[in-house]
Every structure is written in C-alpha cells, then in structure tokens.
Amino acid sequence: MSSNTQKVGFVSLGCPKALVDSERILTQLRVEGYEIVPSYDAADVVVVNTCGFIDAAVQESLDAIGEALEENGKVIVTGCLGKRAEVIREAHPDVLAISGPQDYASVMNAVHAQLPPRHDPHVDLIPSLKKDKRSRRRGADEDVDVGIKLTPKHYAYLKISEGCNHRCTFCIIPSMRGDLVSRPVDDVLIEAEKLVKSGVRELLVISQDTSAYGVDLKYAEREWKNGKVRTRMTEMCAALGDLGAWVRLHYVYPYPHVDEVIGLMTEGRILPYLDIPFQHSSPRILKLMKRPAASAKTLERVLAWRKACPEITLRSTFIVGFPGETEAEFEELLDFLDAAQLDRVGAFAYSPVDGAMANDLPGAVPEEVKQERLERFMAKQAEISAARLQRKIGTTVKALVDHVGKDGAVARTAADAPEIDGLLHVVDGQKLKPGQFVEVRVDGADEHDLSGSLAR
C-alpha cells in the first residue's frame, strides 16, 4: 500500500466470539482501504476490542486501553466492556469513542470521524457489510465472505448466533450481548462452505448457547443446495458435516435434543467432541446458578453418550466456591468427576462480577477456601486426564498439523480444540505442513498432551 494510506492498529481481547467480531471489523476496514498495522507507532488510530466478563478481564481491557493511549494517543474502544462506558471513561476519559459488542457500524463511524475514508473507485466497487443485503436479515448482519481471519488458515470459528436467553446468576453476558439472535442457517452454511473452499480444514462452531440455535427463528426452514434445512442445531450440523471439514461443537448446553448429534458423531459426519459447560453437579447449586437443564440427569446422559459413541471427547468447565457451596456439595462435585470421567476440564474459583445476581447470594465462601477447593478439583481432574490419555498409547490417531519446526510438528487430534485442549507432538514431523492431516502412532502421554511419530 502507498505511504499515504490511512493506518489502523488493532488490539483484540476476549473469547472466540469476540475474535470473530474483530475479524468482521478488520475485514470492513480492509474493504474500505485502511491498512492494518502491527504497531502503535505506525497507526493513525488504534481500535481496542475489549472483554468484560469477569473482573480480571475488565482490568486487562482497561490496561490495554491505557497502553494504547500512552503509546498512540488516539483510541477507539469497542466490545463487551463498551456496554459499561462509565467504567472506561472513569479510567480513561480521553478515548475517542466507545461502543458495545458486534456494533460494527459504530466502530466504523468512529474510524471515519478520525480518518475520513478516501475515495477509491476500485475499492468502492467492493461490497461492504452494510451493502450486503443478504446479511441485513435479522441475525445475519455479518459478511458472508471469508474476509480477514485472525486464526491460522486451516481452522476458523463459525459464529452461529449472538446473545443468550438465559439469566445465569454468575453471568452478565446477556446484559452485554443481549438475547439470543440466531443467524439463518443458509447464511451459516454459505460462510462455512466458503471457508472450506478457502482452505479451512476445521470449523469450530461457537455461540453463547449452541443448543438453543434457531429457537428465536422458530427453527425456520431455509433453502440450501437442492433442498431445505431447518435453522436448528442438529440439521445445521448434518449440513456442515457434508462440507468435508472437521466440525467441532462448542458451548453446548445439555438439553435433551443434544442426544441427536451423537448419531452424527458415530457416523463420522462431525467430530466426536462436545464442549458442555456443566458448571457444577449439585442440584441446589445449579438452581442457585439458574443454569438451564439443571434438572437433567447429567451423569446418566454422559454415560449414555459414551455408550453410543465410545470415542467421544467431553470437555466442560466448572465453578468452585460459588456462594453457599458447602464442603459436602464440593465433595459431590469431586465424586461427579470420578463418575463422569470427563476428558478435558477447566475450572475457576468463583469471582464476583460487577452486575451479577450471584453477588447478592448469602454464604460467600472465603477466598482461601475457594482456592483450596480449586487446587483439589484440578488435582483430581489431572489424575483423570492423565489416565485417559495413557490409554491412547499404542493407538494410531488422525491429527491436524498446527505448527512445524526443527523439533517436529505440533498437531491436534479430534479430541483437542485449539488453544484450550492438549497437543500431539509429532517428533518426526519436520517435513509436514500446517493444515495437513496425518496418521500418528502415539507412544507417550502426560496429563495434557500426547507424543508420537508418523504411522508408517
């Protein structure tokens, strides 16, 4: 690009859903002729996409804004923390503009105000987000082209909806991202197909509540290929499974109809992998959390899924030290881990989030007790994870290569989502390429990762 091109710096924080928002904004900036630069010094203005879910994320976002102001001076703020503009203004009154999550138009207007777009007859012919009439339907205000991706070329996040209809007492996501708004299934499938055609080998389906996908649209049917597909999780997964890429489901709540996708896994149409945030096992604590499907017989369903699909990988997250949690209820949670034998688990000590209803619950657990329970929880799960990975030694697994270096290749199996799960170190993989599928003989394991060599 020419030296007089207007330059924008970008800082992206938060979860994969926020990452997709960043990709949308960056794509629109590029379409309008702005150059994206990697340093504060080179930028004419900096956009910071923030996270505001927990207090640590709020502080990280405020620190990032402060750094951008100090290094550049011209900062536009967007994202989840933008819904709490007063917090940002109190810490950093000199920011140029503040907007909430997925408010792409406000971000672009703020950039235009600081760096008026320059007319380019060639760029002006390219369709933009606001010009794409197909994307202006409710729930589809997103560019269906591949655009700029912040992930490696061989995998991509596929966001199927925004917001959430639940009001979990520990969570403020609905106050930041609103109620559930699903994308019509044909828009999702069009984007997915283009991603696969561009070289994406793995589609990671994300939302705030993947199981609820389409309920706001009354599971409307849409034209796809030579037939119709309902805007519903199972039908969407079946259609995604026809595209020839790995399909991995995240943020799935344990509603009864989740059982339907297990059949797609046994058929090999989508990966045998479910990311289900159980959060706890005690019925009383789940009720205090106002968790959806709290009354479901979770353990029975986990065992039924394993019986139907023995190769399934189950990932979950839990909160320990929730207000009112007794030692007996925590022990019940440890017993659940023993019985469920989950493959991948993350846990957090309860942290009060400004605006969360749980803050008003009685029985706050002392900080030292929360940390002691968290350590016991993670030690228990580490034993389970290590034992489950040990069973893979001697088997041959299919893996997707992420990185290659002089010490071999780093890959992932069907059991491993990027960034959050384990890795497979391929010791003789120096000649492999990122995005390549390979067969690997597993010969080592610890509590997180596997190692092996190429199957001959």
Question: Can you characterise this structure?
Answer:
By secondary structure, the protein is an alpha/beta fold. The protein is 31% helix and 21% strand. The chain has 12 helices and 20 strands. The strands form 6 sheets. A 5-stranded parallel beta sheet has the order 2-1-3-4-5, sandwiched between helices. A 5-stranded mixed barrel has the order 16-17-18-20-19. The protein has a 3-stranded parallel beta sheet with strand order 6-9-12. α2 links the parallel β3 and β4 (75-79). α11 runs parallel beside α12 (367-390). The longest helix is centred in the C-terminal third of the chain and has 24 residues, at 367-390. It is globular, with a radius of gyration of 23 Å. The model is unreliable at 121-144 (pLDDT under 50).
Tell me the radius of gyration: 23 Å
**Proportion of residues in extended strands:** 15-25%
Structural class: alpha/beta
Low-confidence spans: pLDDT under 50, at least 5 residues? 121-144
Overall helicity: 25-40%
Treating each run of at least 4 consecutive H or I residues as one helix, how many helices? Answer: 12
Main beta sheet strand tally, sense and closure: 5 strands, parallel
Distance between the termini: 47 Å
The overall pLDDT average reads 89
Topology record:
Blueprint: E1 7-12, H1 16-31, E2 35-37, E3 45-50, H2 55-71, E4 75-79, H3 85-91, E5 97-98, H4 104-114, E6 155-159, E7 161-162, H5 173-177, E8 181-182, H6 185-197, E9 202-206, E10 221-224, E11 227-230, H7 233-240, E12 246-249, H8 259-266, E13 273-275, H9 283-289, H10 298-308, E14 313-320, H11 327-340, E15 344-349, H12 367-390, E16 396-405, E17 408-413, E18 424-426, E19 437-445, E20 450-454
Parallel strand pairs: 1-2, 1-3, 3-4, 4-5, 6-9, 9-12, 13-14, 14-15, 18-20
Antiparallel strand pairs: 7-8, 10-11, 16-17, 16-19, 17-18, 19-20
